[in-house]
Amino acid sequence: MPARTVTRTVPYPPERLFDLVADVEHYPLFVPNWAAARIIRHIPGGYQTDQIVRFGPLREEFVTETHLEKPHAITVTAVKGPFDHLQILWSFTAVPDGACHIALTVDVELRSRALQVASRIMAGDSAERMVHAFEERARHVYGPPDTAAAAAARAADAGHVDPGA
């Protein structure tokens, strides 16, 4: 499956969005299809996480390693699970008036052809839904955005066309 990139400008500072994405143990509360996530080991610059996702009747458990470069980037790679390859890259770039341009790139290849077909059918546009889930989580955790930051986010997205979308 080709890598998928979703970008968005959101009316919160990079540090706040970074903290939401780094808080993997709360994903089951708001990220679609996430059933469980727990940090199993801290490593220099990050952590390893045991996670479970569900797509319809399919349930997959996997272990990832997350590297944190606060507040600019988070890189997640598979250590164990149903993947030939899994890399997730989040980047956070400050824009004027306290907003943040985020980019999420998901590059995944499952081992089983049956899982590949099923995940394409059931996951749909999961990267887009994931970014939306974090936007909603930011509103829930941090409250309504500052008006200047919201205007900056709208202006930044109006002038940006995402070729990966």
UniProtKB/TrEMBL annotation:
InterPro entries named among the record's database cross-references: COQ10-like, COQ10_START, START-like_dom_sf
GO molecular function, one term: ubiquinone binding
Pfam families noted in UniProt: Polyketide_cyc
Transmembrane stretches, start-end: none
Domain of life: Bacteria
Biological processes, Gene Ontology terms: cellular respiration
Coenzyme Q-binding protein COQ10 START domain: residues covered: 10-135
Family recorded in the similarity comment: Belongs to the ribosome association toxin RatA family.
Name the record gives this protein: Coenzyme Q-binding protein COQ10
Species whose genome carries this gene: Caenispirillum bisanense
Taxonomic lineage of the native organism: Bacteria, Pseudomonadati, Pseudomonadota, Alphaproteobacteria, Rhodospirillales
